[in-house]
Amino acid sequence: MDEKGLERDEVLRILMDARRRDERYGGGRILGSMCTEPHWFAREVFSMFMDVNLGDAGLFPGTKALEREVVSALASLLGFKYASGFVVTGGSEANITALWAARNATGKRKVLLPETAHFSFDKACDILGLEKEVVGVDEEKRIRLEEVERRVDEETCAIIAVAGSTEYGSVDDLHGLARIARERETWLHVDAAFGGFVLPFLSELGYTSFSLPEEGVSTITIDPHKMGLAPIPCACLLFKDAEALRSVETPTPYLTEKTQHTLSGTRCGAAAAAAYAVLKLLGREGYREVVRVCMENTLALYQGVLELGFKARRPVLNILVFELPKELYRALTLKGWRLSRTRMGETRIVVMPHVTAKVVEDFLSDLAALQGEGG
Ligand SMILES: Cc1ncc(COP(=O)(O)O)c(C=O)c1O
228, 158, 151, 146: which is closest to 192 by C-alpha? Predict the structure, then answer.
């Protein structure tokens, strides 16, 4: 650190230079991210609550109540009854915490998870000393139930289900997995970090049918900072059984509340307040409209790439995966498009709210032009 401080304008100049090097969602070229520009209202609210520490919640009962409302609103969105939980920094922290609780509550160490599971589960297993068993997926990238059934045993502490996989948007058979979890008395964690804010609305719009099993799901991850339009860092971990939280309870003798159940100590109250603000402002109706537009744009993109002759997977939610020759991928990148690839090397586009109909049109037109040049 420098001995003397700089003038405000000088610091701002440095900051603006840094920001200019960053990509912007508003530019419409970021096609491989699960984040987007937060809602304008969430930005305002975030700055009002920036000093709130939910890790010392006795000092901030007002914001703590907002956090409780976020938890119960998201539980009701998903049809998850009797949930408790909290706001955390991201889907990774939520997933790690879920397995922390599962391990402590069951005293077991084996985790069954689909090939499509997010890499945060690798971190979780590493940190928690859990034994990871990867289960194969079917053509639609859904975990193979018969394989889960075969591999679940006395040592299994949790089964992971994905509701909206990071790469494909695929959704595991939650009812089938919940049945296995109930019969074999194991935990079932549902990772709906991305899909949680999409699937209930797609279901209402008639694109798919989504429902959570009444019994058998232990914990759920759902991230407002993805399709929930909340500022980073904001994810939620929901627990079916408040008692289960006890397994990760840590005494915090010198704070205003005597225990904590989160990995983070100091926690961002602004994240909870901003998520609350968007939930209240938009309501189900507002989010349904966001999802409707994203899905229409996804289907337009799907149609467009098919018409250009590329092989594509029919999208389940607002993620399109298709096969693109390496040269075209590179050429699109040189034109400024920020795409991403699946582990299998397919091209993946996440049609977030900043990926508008115009962006889709521009992308398809660039793709057609580059394809023409190549041919
Ligand atoms: C399904 C799923 N789970 C977990 C995560 C991790 O979330 P985060 O990056 O907020 O930690 C992601 C991130 O893309 C995800 O798609």
Answer: 228
> Residue 83: pLDDT above 90?
no
Pocket test for ligand 1, best of 99, 113, 118, 226 (most atoms within 8 A of CB): 118
Question: Which of ligand 1's atoms lies nearest the C-alpha of 162?
Answer: 1
Residues with CB under 6 A from ligand 1: 34, 90-92, 95, 118, 120, 162, 166, 191, 193-194, 223, 235
Q: Residue 90's closest CA among 230, 218, 191, 232?
A: 232
Measured distance CA(36)–CA(166) in Å, rounded = 15
Please list the residues that pair with 237 across neighbouring strands. Answer: 86, 221
Quickly list DSSP for 288-351: HHHHHHHHHHHHHHHHHHHHTT--BPPPSSSEEEE---HHHHHHHHHTT-B-EE-TTS-EEEE-
pTM above 0.85, yes or no: yes
Sequence-distant (6+) residues with CB within 8 A of 137 are 114, 115, 116, 143, 144, 170
Q: What is the pLDDT of residue 375?
A: 46
pLDDT, tens only, 282-341: 999 999 999 999 999 999 999 999 999 999 999 999 999 999 999 999 999 999 999 999
**Closest CA to ligand 1's atom 15:** 166
**Which residue's entry shows tokens 């040269």?**
327
Distance between CA atoms of residues 334 and 337, nearest Å: 7
Instruction: Give the closest residue to 43 by CA, choosing from 295, 230, 321.
Output: 230
- Beta-carbon-side half-sphere exposure of residue 169 (alpha carbons within 13 Å): 25
Counted residue by residue, the chain has a size of: 375
